[in-house]
Design a protein that fits this description.
The complex is a heterodimer of chains A (606) and B (363).
Chain A (H helix, E strand, L loop, with lengths): L2 E3 L2 H14 L12 H4 L5 E3 L6 E3 L4 H5 L10 H4 L2 H4 L1 E2 L13 E4 L5 E4 L2 H9 L4 H10 L27 H15 L7 H9 L8 H12 L2 H7 L4 H6 L2 H7 L8 H5 L24 H5 L21 H4 L2 H33 L6 H13 L12 H25 L4 H9 L2 H38 L3 H7 L6 H14 L14 H25 L1 H7 L3 H31 L9 H4 L4 H7 L1 H8 L8
Antiparallel strand pairs in A: 2-3, 5-6
Helix pairs in contact in A: 17-26, 18-28, 18-29, 19-20, 19-21, 20-21, 21-24, 24-25, 24-26, 28-29
Chain B lengths: L11 H8 L2 H39 L54 H4 L15 H7 L5 H5 L9 E5 L5 E2 L3 H11 L1 H6 L1 H19 L3 H11 L6 H17 L6 E5 H5 L1 H17 L5 H11 L10 H4 L15 H8 L2 H10 L3 E3 L9
Antiparallel strand pairs in B: 1-2, 1-3
Classes of the chains: A mainly alpha (606), B mainly alpha (363).
């Protein structure tokens, strides 16, 4: 085969596009490789027809320069004899451990090798044998002779830490004040080389994704007898925060290489010097950048959470909540659905017409009309404070529960990221607790007023409050269910607050106490872990999230249908806006109150 | 005598009044309310089922790795070329496949209107080891339709037009090429009358970035130009940066391809026709005359051999008029006389060549 050797003029012609259009940008590409390799489309399909071979090299990597290797020539890594000929010869894999000759400061040549990194790896849990076997178990993505470094590394890019390119030029210009002529040095490269190391090279998400490549691979886990650590990490608070885009939360490296080592020196957690070793964990958790000031017991909080496999206290608490949800939300859901079915089938309570007429009569009478207002201004105000807090808490809290969903990350982003959302969640939660105390004081005031007026005992007054759930309410709920199941002819008459409303009210009361107390434990986790085992935090977050889920189901489905989406009240019941309940609602759910008001000489509840 | 039938005499107004009479309205309302209640009934049960299902799954079953955390591509599988969801195709790849060192970013712009590749016959990266310079030919497919090389017009002065790869519609030259030309031809105005060129630069730059997909540096230059007064030091610095940088970012990723005018005008209809023919081809008995005829029908307009590189890059007159296609004067001059094209032609004829190292290290 004829071989054509080109002359100098020919080389100029080849390099012309580069030299003319990119003299500054391709400063390090002295071999002119990017004249062709800058094109993303420079690619082909492998001879076996299975794989795409990309020959694209990002010119910006060398242009800006964007990485520690950007000052290297292509032939520093690739064999000259293979790439100087066109078409290129089959490539020998690059040896990352070879010694390079670098231009150091002041134009002094420096010899450099990654051999010391290999040495670190050899003494770490990710030794050569581990990486070789992992590659095989991954299906040998690394071909024969390729460096195991490629399992974790691709072209290393300097992180800009959120700065724009133009913003980052300002400090370089300052460097150039002195370094431009007298102390000549590539300030841009040096600046990025140093400052990039002060920030993580990868995002938390990419880092976990990288670890999961092996640590969530079933074959590798079986071979090395490892649990699925990435999955259990992602089920914990830190993992969920990572899924939601947080860069501040703890990632795999924060705990497994600590602050004093580097990623190539990770040790098995059984090793006594590993930061993840049980003896060292308290200090690892209490790193200044993490849980500074926390108690040593913080290390027993679950950083890897796998409910279904743990079979511990957490699992049984979760089971209890599943039962609680099924046996409280279940009947409510059934009632709501059956009520809709009643409308679909057109079935009516035989007394409904009579109740409607009575409601109309009472509404028309100026003496009785005010008595039909079921909520006064004060109560409506409390409801809307509660509703506002609830909505904000749901919006800022539930993305954590559904952190793997795209919408969750978007929603958290709208609140300024996980830290912003958490701050809003904390203060709104505090407002909700204040509201709870306020409501308790409101009830006490009512008790005191009635005690003064009637002279009755405190307990008697308490049990007589219109929202207090008593045995009669259970009977009423039972009667409603029987009616909806067509085992009873007439719908049971409800009072000012019917049984369903009373159970909802008690649910809110209980929920606020549970959510508030567990929320406080988590908010002040440093204090908690100084006095209580860290496991309490795991239990608190579990209870908090389960109870919140129960509350969301009740409010989001049952309550929303009864006050907004039910055909009887659609588009919305005005009861909590004006205090006045619509006639159909009065007739359906509060017939006993109508009877009570209609009874001559009776004084209804205020 | 049979009684004649008479249509009841009723005015449209009266008819409408009858239709909308109270009982009818009540019936309609009742149906609507019942239908609505049925929808709420279904929604309530569905929501309840989903909630309990979620609860049981999260408590009693092991969690699964979220999709966003699934492992990196071990390699660039050919199947990725037909998946618009693949990283690097419609969105940047956060890292290269495991065995690949150099960053790949967005490495492929799909062309959903290309009948040759979408019919299932040819890969979207169509040139393989059978071609002498497959990678070189493949990077041309980023901005050229297949017919540009494989069905050259007999008329040497045939015109070429740009077609949008997303819509297959004919469009103007890609914004980045227009911007290159604009900056080159209006260098004086940029210096003397910046306000007169500001709007056009911003518009074209915005369109260029949209077409490229993601370009942090151009993004930042645009932001600088947008937030500065035309002619101000900041504006001038940004525009100068743009003039220096822009040609490096015009690397064929335009979301548009050049096509001979006849091909461009018929692309959408030809796509349908070619897809049908391809389906018939695959359905036909292998080796049958029917299949052979279909093969000939599909490939009839193609030349026996692809056009030589030098036809466009080192010929007078060039087969493709780069200026008419929207390339700037400087870029057109460069592309019309590319020495490398002649070398590629020699490779296609079985020759190798070596690149000397005379310029290396400032020698």
């Amino acid at each position: 085969m004829a071989i054509l050797r080109v002359n100098f003029a020919l080389l100029l012609a080849i390099a012309l596009p580069v030299l003319v259009t990119a003299s500054r940008s391709l400063a390090y590409d002295t071999e002119g490789c990017l004249a062709c390799h800058q094109y993303r489309g420079l690619s082909r399909i492998s001879d076996d027809g299975k794989e795409i071979e990309l020959f694209y090299v990002d010119p910006n990597y060398y242009n800006t320069p964007r990485g520690p290797h950007s000052r290297l020539k292509c032939t520093d890594c690739h064999l000259r004899k293979e790439v100087e000929v066109f078409p290129h010869q089959p490539q020998t894999p690059v040896d990352c451990g070879k010694t390079c000759h670098l231009d150091g400061p002041n134009q002094v040549e420096v010899r450099f090798s990654h051999e010391h990194v290999s040495e670190m790896l050899r003494h770490s849990v990710h030794g050569e044998d581990c990486l070789t076997q992992s590659n095989q178990l991954l299906g040998s993505p690394l071909k024969q002779g390729q460096s195991p470094c490629l399992l974790c590394h691709d072209e290393p890019l300097f992180s800009r830490g959120g700065q724009t390119w133009l913003q980052s030029e300002a400090p370089i210009n300052r460097c150039n004040t002195c370094h431009d002529e007298q102390l000549t040095v590539d300030t841009r490269q040096f600046y990025w080389h140093v400052t990039a190391r002060t920030r993580p090279a990868r995002t938390n998400q990419d880092l976990v994704r990288l670890c999961a490549m092996c640590h969530s691979n079933s074959a590798i886990r079986a071979r090395f007898n490892m649990p699925d650590a990435p999955i259990s990490y992602l089920a914990s608070f830190h993992g969920k925060a990572t899924l939601l885009g947080s860069q501040e939360t703890a990632n795999c490296l924060n705990c497994h290489d600590g602050l004093v080592r580097n990623v190539h020196q990770i040790l098995a957690h059984a090793d006594a010097t590993s930061p993840a070793n049980a003896a060292n964990l308290p200090d690892t958790c209490r790193q200044p950048a993490c849980h500074r000031g926390a108690g040593t017991m913080i290390s027993s909080a679950a950083v890897h959470l796998d409910l279904s496999r743990s079979r511990g206290v957490e699992f049984f608490i979760a089971c209890l909540f599943v039962l609680l949800i099924v046996f409280t939300f279940g009947p409510s859901l059934l009632l709501t659905a059956l009520k809709m079915l009643e409308i679909v089938t057109g079935r009516k309570d035989p007394n409904e017409h009579q109740h409607i007429e009575l409601a109309k009569k009472l509404l028309a009478d100026p003496r009785t009309r005010p008595q039909l207002d079921r909520f006064n201004l004060h109560q409506r105000f409390q409801h809307w404070v509660l509703a506002t807090c609830f909505i904000i808490l749901v919006l800022t809290g539930f993305p954590l529960k559904f952190a793997e969903q795209t919408w969750a990350a978007w929603l958290i982003g709208e609140f300024g990221g996980i830290s912003g959302a958490r701050r809003i969640h904390h203060y709104t939660g505090a407002l909700l607790i204040l509201g709870l105390f306020y409501h308790a004081a409101y009830i006490l005031r009512e008790l005191r007023r009635q005690h003064k007026t009637t002279g009755a005992g405190w307990l008697k007054i308490l049990f007589g409050l219109p929202m207090w759930v008593g045995p009669s309410d259970l009977k009423q709920m039972n009667a409603i269910m029987l009616y909806l199941l067509r085992l009873r002819k007439d719908y049971p008459a409800g009072g000012r607050f019917n049984a369903e409303e009373k159970f909802e009210y008690i649910g809110v009361f209980w929920g606020s106490i549970v959510l508030g107390s567990t929320g406080i434990l988590m908010w002040f986790n440093a204090w908690t872990t100084q006095h209580l085992p860290g496991r309490i935090l795991t239990i608190a977050i579990l209870i908090h999230t389960m109870e919140a889920f129960l509350a969301l189901l009740h409010v989001g489905i049952v309550h929303m249908v009864s006050v907004i989406f039910s055909p009887d009240v659609f588009p919305v019941s005005p009861a909590m806006f004006t205090g006045q309940t619509p006639i159909t609602e009065l007739a359906d759910g509060h017939a006993a109150m109508l009877d009570e008001i209609n009874r001559p000489g009776e004084v209804p509840h205020a | 005598m049979p009684k004649r039938f008479h249509f009841p005499r009723i005015s449209p107004k009266a008819l409408w009044a009858k239709i909308t009479a109270t009982p009818f309205r009540a019936a309609v309302k009742s149906i609507l309310v019942r239908a609505y209640a049925l929808v709420i009934f279904a929604l309530v049960l569905s929501a309840g089922y989903l909630a309990v299902h979620y609860l049981v799954r999260t408590v009693f079953f092991p969690p699964v790795l979220p999709e966003s955390m699934q492992d990196w591509a071990a390699r660039l599988d050919v199947a990725l070329l037909r998946s618009s969801q693949a990283e690097g195709v419609e969105r940047p790849a956060p890292r290269a496949p495991i065995s690949h060192y150099h960053g790949v970013d967005q490495w492929f712009q799909p062309d959903p209107g290309n009948g040759c590749t979408l019919s299932g016959c040819h890969q979207p990266i169509p040139h393989d080891h059978r071609a002498k310079v497959p990678a070189f030919a493949n990077f041309h497919t980023t901005f050229l339709t297949c017919q540009m090389c494989h069905a050259p017009p007999t008329d040497r002065a045939a015109a070429a037009r740009w077609i949008n790869t997303d819509t297959s519609a004919v469009q103007d030259a890609p914004a980045i090429l227009q911007l290159l030309e604009y900056l080159e031809l209006n260098a004086g105005a940029i210096e003397s009358r910046p306000a007169s060129v500001d709007a056009q630069i911003k518009t074209l730059l915005q369109q260029s970035i949209t077409a490229i997909g993601q370009d942090a540096l151009l993004d930042e230059i645009l932001a600088e130009i947008q937030s500065s007064e035309p002619g101000s030091p900041v504006w001038k610095r940004a525009v100068n940066e743009l003039m220096g940088e822009l040609s490096l970012h015009a690397r064929g990723e335009y979301r548009a391809k050049l096509a001979w005018t006849a091909v461009a005008d018929q692309r959408a209809s030809k796509f349908q026709e070619m897809t049908q023919q391809a389906q018939q081809y695959f359905a036909a008995t292998p080796g049958s005359p029917e299949q052979h005829n279909l093969y000939l029908a599909i490939h009839g307009p193609l030349a026996s051999a692809p056009t030589a590189c030098v036809s466009c890059h080192d010929n007078e007159p060039a087969m493709l008029d780069f200026r008419a296609a929207g390339y700037s004067p400087k870029r057109s001059a460069l592309l019309s006389h590319l020495e490398i094209a002649r070398l590629m032609q020699q490779i296609r004829q079985g020759q190798h060549f070596y690149i000397p190292s005379m310029l290396e290290g400032g020698q």
